[in-house]
Amino acid sequence: MAARPYFVTWSAQEGAVELALERAEGQTLFLQGGHAVLDLVSTSFHTNFGHSFAPILEALRQQLGGVCTSIAKASTPQRSAAARGLVDAVGHPGRILFTLGGAESVENALKLARSLTGRARVLSRCKSYHGATLGALGVTGDWRRNGQVLPEGFGGFFPDPASDPEGDGLAACVAAHGPDRIAALCIETVSGANGVHGAPVGWWRRARSLCDATGALLILDEVLCGFGRTGPCFAFQDAALAAAIVEPDFVCMAKALTGGYAPLGALWVSERHARHYDAEVLSAGLTHYAHPLGLAAAEVVLDVLAQPAFQSEKRALEACFSTLVGGLATHPAVAGVRHAGLLAALDLRVPAPPWEHFIEAGIHLVVKPDMLILAPAFTTTQAELARGVSLLSILLDAQMASAEAPWPGTLEAVTAEAGTP
Ligand SMILES: Cc1ncc(COP(=O)(O)O)c(C=O)c1O
Questions:
Q1: Domains plus CATH for the chain?
Q2: pLDDT digits (tens, 9 = 90+) for 145-158
């Protein structure tokens, strides 16, 4: 008999580690035994308003009193309002295809780009993640692709902009794959789980002009960055980038679209492509299309993000976060820090302590062998942020001091070892 009657994601099942979660409140996860863990990564970059955000909870309660199942082909004012809100948030004329999550948004973008151009190939970054469905995984550039190679001629990977700031490698990749065979470039505007790598403005100009010259479409994957993570509503709306990108062809969204309170994703399709489906059949659909519970949460998210008072508090939190993670750049264990808004990656000089050590110490974040990633909720207090970053720094002190020595077992022991009161 297997230990668990379900699968743990992205893990060999034997020995897979999970959080023994009892409840969650605000930014805190309470584990069995009452152990409190400050969530510094918005769970999976999606609970941007924490775990008990009253406006979303209230909207869901109200929705439960009305229509709360999806009727795929029902026209409702709620559906139109949510779609209009998303198009306005993108800031260019377009239409919305609702999905249930990020991978489905990417999957539909790949499908539409291929059908609109009549071409097969999609190029993406060497270091990227686009979702766990077959197409999205096929254009993913990290360990999670794990042999899921799509048929020859489907995808290709261009060098990361960090090592190709002028875009020469991108241009060479386009040339090698055949400019008239490429349906789209699929790009995380700022990569998330692969280390918070943006791209220089000049690189984006080159990408835009390559798309214009070859007829390839530009798919921006904003699943992780969308809805304020890097500052603006979408990462591509950073003023300099927006000027270089001009207008994307597709924008993929999910995760924080509902603050994580219901599964919902969306694909924004530029109006000039959306029109194509006025006369042609759109081969896309879902049983749970435009689910009312997801839409109810999404409407609150869009509304809250647009409130000036919320925006100014968020900007203050971003400034605090920038100071705190910027301060870690001088930590001897830290080789480099990249951050934008409330998203940060720390490159480490020493192997990262195991994820369980952070949990034991009371903080939850993404731990890679040589990197840590933080993405606190927008509702985190500055005091919580300061406490979280200080705990992180203490753990890194301990890691530096005793890279070889076993984990002391408790936070008290770590702080005692690190000589911190
Ligand atoms: C950039 C990006 N795209 C797509 C996805 C897939 O989203 P989902 O897990 O909702 O399918 C993720 C998830 O982590 C992501 O970070």
A1: 21-52+308-418 (3.90.1150.10), 54-306 (3.40.640.10)
A2: 887 777 777 889 99
